[in-house]
Predict the structure.
Amino acid sequence: MTLLSIRNLSVQYHNANESIPALKGVGFEMQAGEKLAVVGESGSGKSTLALTIGNLLPAQASVDGSIDWPGLDGIPKNGRDVGFIFQDPGGSLDPLAHVGTQIAAVAQYHLHLTRWQAREQAQLLLANVGLDPQSGFFDAYPHQLSGGQRQRVAIACAIAARPKLLIADEATSALDTLIQADILLLIAKLVADTDLALLFITHDLALASEMGDRMAVFQSGKLVEIGSIAAVVGNPGTPYVKRLIASHIGLLSPPLVTSA
Amino acid sequence: MTGIVLSVAGLCKTFTRGSGLVAAADNVSFCVKSGETLALCGPSGSGKSTIARLVMRLLDPDSGRIVLGGQDLTALRGEALRRQRSRFQMVFQDSTAALNPRATVYDAVAAPLRIHNIGRRTDRACNVGKLLEQVGLSADLSARAIHEISGGQRQRVAIARALASKPDLVVLDESLSAIDPSLRLDVLRLFLDLQQRRSIAFLFISHDVALVRAFAHKVAFIEHGKIVEQGRAVDVIDQPQSALARAMIAAVPRLKEL
Amino acid sequence: MILNLVRTPEGFVGTILLGLLTVWALVAPWAYPGDPLSIAGPALLPPWTDWSLPLGTDRLGRNIAAGLMYGARTSMIVGLAAAGTAILLGLLVGVAAGFIGGVVDETLMRITDAFQTVPGFLLALAFVSVVGPSLPVVVLAIALGTWPPPARIARAEVLSLRERDFVAAARSIGMRPVEIAFREVLPNALPPVLALSSVIVAAAILIEAALSFLGLGDPNRVTWGGMISEGRTVLRTAPWLSIFPGIALVTAVLGVYLTGEGVVEAHARREMLL
């Protein structure tokens, strides 16, 4: 079943002097429960895409084209139908509230639970994201947690209302390799356990190929190529994607130096 | 310069953090030869950035020696240390934070030339232009302000500045993580070209193991301030012995194509 | 930048007011050549009766319009000079304290505390009473009372800037500490201090007016405060002696405040769009 259908989407940012196009004529579909990885470099528009789908664009942006949600009844509500994970692990958390309370607030508001039910739900979620509520994580403040732990809390908040789509916008770029691997495993597990669809935004080609069933490549605001991982990586159609793959440095790439 | 450029012996540094002491460097010893790249690889909090700053003498070690081309840097202070700084430079991770936002590109790149009296004043503009071209930027960028140019251009300006005083050693502190993947190869090739022509030694701080394998000759894996494994980069990464190296290598995302 | 300033409502009004005052001050020697303190006509002439003396005359027959224009010069000179001195002094102390740290920081901050605990006006008053009234003394006196806030703000900015990577980078290329303080840190610490400048200019103009009102201003110059003071005794019969300089004072202070607000607003708008 199609969850999301985007047609001819164009987004521009306006300021006093000029209008800057961020997305130009983008169109694609997402199925329910699908994992779509969006790859692009700086200026490609991938973050703008995430913000547009998540209904988080600033006031100075104008949107043309259509975003339809055939998989939902009515317009999607932030938090309830779409969950968002940002790049900065602590940035989306209230520094003055316990993390458990913040997760519970999401559940209480969107699922119409009582305070006590929401608390229980929050504790379950904390356990689900790997933060044992018995170890005192419920009453911790964001600044008492490490970057990786904060991102886990952010993930818990994002899925608390049981959304249909989870948008991860460079969710692991600010974390080091080991912690990144843990968070990615967590996201993959959460998506697999439920019928959650995942829109995974990254600049890392290898990461995209690991996290998605399909990959969409963006360049300068345009969608240049979209298809299954095997198709895009194994048989790239556009010169840009070919270049991206050729310049990728992996563990199997030949070393650039000859060491004695 | 040939032979060993940087020799670090028994470097120790502890910080008091919250309730206890944290060892950022615990008896660290390594050396880098001219024309060679040594990578320090480790997770965040391992102490690799602290070691970079100790080597750059931005921090004072609790104990240990840092010797650059025969000169004991740990024994130097004040003006004597400042005069030696032309021989070792650093490229920071975030060029937006590492350059004075109000300065012009010219100010930033000419500063080391001015401070260490390199070249004639009349030639300075010309020299700055040459340095910019060396890193793939146009000489016309000199007049622009730092906050006006793009992130990728800023990182190249930072690199041009680090190379201005023709140092023997350059410390790269996660310097490539802010650069787009498609441009990374260009910057790497630039570094390698300079390394071959001028025999510059690089101390490369990174948590990106794939990048380290491609770019470094030798690697040292660091955990809690201690070196847990070191050796030839390709050997260590293809056949890791320590738990940390194994974990970091397993965590590298792989491009699934087959 | 000026264009952005004028686009904001506050900046627009403020610039017009200040512009008028500046023109007013500059035009004075041509409009009314000669000494404004000389007698120009009959005493206590009401305004708008004689067109060569449009705003009337005071108790000694001096031209009020001339007094306003020359008074504008004094107020603006004092306002700008005192604010400039205060900010310069504050910057030096704040940057030194924040950058050097340690004992120097503590000592400078205790001195700043000492100056700040005495109300600015009383400090100026005491200083002028002791040293004697003249324009440079008045400027210095006002600066003495208004330099602590810029010093504190400069110090706070320097403390946070000191930890930034570009200061470490400057050290790593071999810059001397003095050069780092003045080339790298000070220009970046400047904006919040300059944001205070309009408040200090306004305060300086008011303190100067108050000092002149009490007879402690420069006796050889016409000042609005002095004119208001002159009009005290005849307030019921010839109120225009005090009202006109009063309006001029309000206009000047309002103009400065509004321009300052306009600058902040223009800056904020520009930042938002970046």
